[in-house]
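Hi Y.,

Following your request, here is the sequence exactly as I used it, all 221 residues.
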Amino acid sequence: MRLHVFPPSPRAIKAVAVKNHLNLDCEICVVDYFRAEQTRPEFAKLNPNRRQPVLEDGEWTLWESNAILFYLAAKKPDAGLYPDRARDQADVMRWLFWEGAHWDPACDVLITERVKKAFLRVRESGRRTGGQSEAPQPPDPQRVAEGEKWVGELAGILDAHLADRPWLVGDKPSIADFALGAWIPSAARVGLPLAGCDAIDSWYERVAALPGWRESLPGPM
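Below is the corresponding structure, written out as tokens. Let me know if you'd prefer a different format.
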């Protein structure tokens, strides 16, 4: 298998972390966003959306980060990252959908304004990025305020859910914990408003202690 990723991205972190946790034989191929490699024709053949991560398994290609997590977990079902019971499976999918529809785009607003604009050419609020920025753009105060409000509301939902449970679903980690947890390492740098979210703090300590997690985190940009 080959996993194409841009290491600073939380979407890359979660895929690499699951790969590491399961000790899967998978080559890591870095997609250099500073050189806009994701826009090149050869990468577009792998993912017409021109985004990462992308997984190749033989002649088969899979994109969308949470689909990749599901596929990797299925490689080693005994590890338990995807549960057996139908209700638990639905619960994991619920949190994966929540992450993709709400948590990801909310956090991405602040990542775009406070990080991407300093390094990359961005448009469409960061949903599309080009190569190295020749003239870093300052954060948009209105977008920052919107992002902080949005993330704050979602963090309250997540914190309340985790207040009386160790993991998002059941009594052991699942791919849902990897998906949501991958955004937390960016919290301090981009100013995610998580102050007072004690349950999230405790939960992330457990996520960070999982085998393979620390090795999945990129170094400083």
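The first strand starts at residue 2 and ends at 5.

Thanks again,
Q.
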